[in-house]
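Worked problem 6 (solution included).
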Amino acid sequence: MSEHLSRRDALRLGALAATVPAAASVGPARADAAAPTGDAGTGADPGPLPRPGWVADNWVVKPFALNQVALRDGIFQQKRDRMLNYARNYPGTGGVLDGPDRMLHLFRANAGLPAPGTWPGGWDTPNHLLRGHFTGHYLTMLAQCYADTGEEIFREKLDYLVTELGRCQRELDRRNFGRVAGRAGRAVRLGDPHPNQYVLMPAGILDGVTELTVATWVNLAAAQTAARIFSFGAGPQSYLSLTARIAAGAGPRFAITTGGSAGEQRVDATVPVPVGEWAHLAVTLSAADATARIYLDGAEVGAGAVTLGPANLGRTTDNWIGRSPANNDPLLTATVDDLRIYDRALGPDEIRALAAPDGTAGTSTAATPLAWYRFEEEGETAADHSGNGHAATIVGTAHPGFLAAFPEGQFSRLEPPTFQPNSGPNAVWAVWYTCHKIMRGLLNAYQLVGNEEALAIVFRMGDWAHSRLSRISRADLDRMWDIYSAGEAGSMNEVMAELSALAPDRERRARYLDTAKAFTFSTLFAASLAQRDELAGRHANQYMAPNIGYLRIFERTGERDYHRAARNFWSMVVPHRIFSNGGAGQSEHFRARGIITSGFTSGSDPRHAETCCAYNMLRLTRNLFFHDPDPAYLDYYEKALHNQILSSRRDVDSVTSTEVTYHQNMWPGRSRRIGNVVEYSRYGGNGSCCNGTGLESHTKYQETIYFRSADDSALYVNLFIASVLTWPERGFVISQETAYPTEGASTLRFDRGHGRLRVKLRVPSWAGADYTVRVNGRQQHVKAVPGSYLTLDRWWREGDRIDISMPLRFRVEKALDDRSVQSIMYGPTLMVVRDATPSYREFTFFPTLGLDGDLGRAIQPTGTPMHFSTHGYLLAPYYVSDPVPGEFNAYHPYVRRVEPEVVFGSVRTGVPNDGLRDADGETFLDRVWAAAPFRRHGDFLRTVRDVSDEWLAAGRHTAAQRRAILVAAVRARRDLAH
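Solution. The predicted structure is:
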């Protein structure tokens, strides 16, 4: 279960603190001191309690709370501090609550409450279909900022925001979920902001009908074009319908067709339907004279010859009030009352009687309706008052507990029977994704800060989510989650699984867990279980985020398939779809497995490595590690954190914009500007998905530096970031001093505490054999295997010191689909070539190598730390993000290796190198130097001989070429020794 802490837990934690040695602290590890602030007994505020957020019982490794790890001087602290400044001062207008008020504006407007001021912008603007998600990220940012720093300003903003969101939720519960005032009783209100979207009449309602009359009262709320008042059809090509208006100022149109819009037989009315007042509309279709007539308020306003009739359509299955057979036509925004269907063409007098102004004369007509919808009853069923049993369904049921910045009808449009895509006038755009961000933010307000009102709000949202989804079949859920973008649900399964742990009773726990499982997309879930890679072409974020929730379900139930699916998914992404900056995707989509560089120099979409993808992959990676502390997870984590995430925050101060990238261009010679769009401010600089995840990513850098074993017997040192760890349960305060990644060294000091502890030091996969560890100045005789953890198990005392040396060297990472396209790495850091030429820069390294295989022989330092030169170009860290306002540094994340001939130092062989590659795409020299460093020249010669034997056997080299290579390898002894 989750280790969730309320304010009432303060007394319990106070008792816990009394059992901790005096050197320890339950207060936050401040940025300015390793010790807690305040002395015992002085009444000084020690800051927020340690709240690590969600922690599962079946984790073998567990995190520390944000306020137990304080960042020290370095690039991470600098980037974090810029976001803290944004969090304190956004939007720069001076008022403490001005930022929260902006985040609340659209929620208040949606709830019908006064909404002064303005909105965040970007996607968080009126009428934008994703509005409100940014507020969820803002909640999480404030929670993390308070959990990190203990600054009261963050809790003040957060508490105000939570209180006002609760007010919005209560006001939304007071909506009129049912009928509204009609012409002579009650009516159905269709279209936003009312939940009702349209009315679904039963299939076959026109079976056997040859003539027809449809009459109804309508009060249009807007001057829409192409919105249908009613439509009966047997598919998109076969229908009859009445359109409210076809153009501005035009009258209604009746159409019938069996050949789509091109084959429509039409009658256009000459008088428009008024807006904002009741009007009576009727259509008659007579077989006797093959004529269709349109009546407005009892008067004929249009007539025309029509040879088709209802019988020509076949069995009608798509029968709607307020909906068109085409997704490109808007749903009707109007109030509809007293709709009647007759199986004959009524005469003018009968139509006038139906349109009588007293609202009662219509009941005296001699005709008996085939169906009659009066909309007097509450609920989603529209009873048929004709007695013929043609009850209809009102699509758009509302449920209590709803909270969003857009109308609840957006959820109905995604659900069956509508299934709207993310485009067109009825579009749905990731409504459950938005819901997840809000619920996640509220849960973080509770879990990290202790705001219990936030938990109450999110419980009611959980009840609402269960009410909506429990009515939908598994097949229809799968169809929903497979709709591009519209079906994106973030990690809704994560928050619902966490709610199931927090719920106070068994029934609610079961409901929430069932709802968490409802977000499983069966197709990809089954493929992941079977290790079938079906990710190509998929919307990356849409299918990354649910895997985090799969782990939560596993943690709640022990059902191993959920863990297996998440783990297998991760292995389909890493390394097979990962750029050298740790990012993934092109134009937000996965490409085929192993495709990295395709299209880098063509006219294809340059939008690579969406920042949200890295955010989600890091969350997934971290959670997988808690179950299985595989060092490979942390190798990827370091790559993505040090490169994509660190680089995503621009190196300028701003309190008006997040300054976080959306995409990160991997093309050669590009920058963080794509065309005229600056990626830091794409979609406004606030309000986009990546702006939102950026609020979170840059206020929680410290969350993965250290972990602890579940039994507190071991400390995992995962990342080399200057920081201080305060561990009250063990009485330790441990500081880490490092200039990493500028220098490959780090020092851990036991500033306080003593006791037995296994310290597990990560050995990065890029580290060399010279990774060494000293304890109190004495070198430890331990084997440091790259891509592992090295364990120091001993009794530690205050003042003990661990010195880690892991010299940084240049190396290359080769693209999977073209091994000649390579990134230059310096330790964990991607080094980019600063140049604006839009084609690969070509580098040659092999002639410069010595026995140590060090690329650094061809790379020279400059006067600026972490900046180098090679081949006449400047190499700079990828994480340096345009620090000069108005300037955007062009860069090459990848270069092309041009190694045309097999050479050893200055000794040439005449044997082609690049032109001959093995099945893995490697050249002869690639294979030889992969074995570096070589202790002696003899070791080098043996490797050359072995690879040469292999290539001769494979027919890649002739015997003469092999002799030339072996001779050159011997002659190059002096060159290789330098």
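Discussion: Residues 1-45 have pLDDT under 50 and may be disordered.
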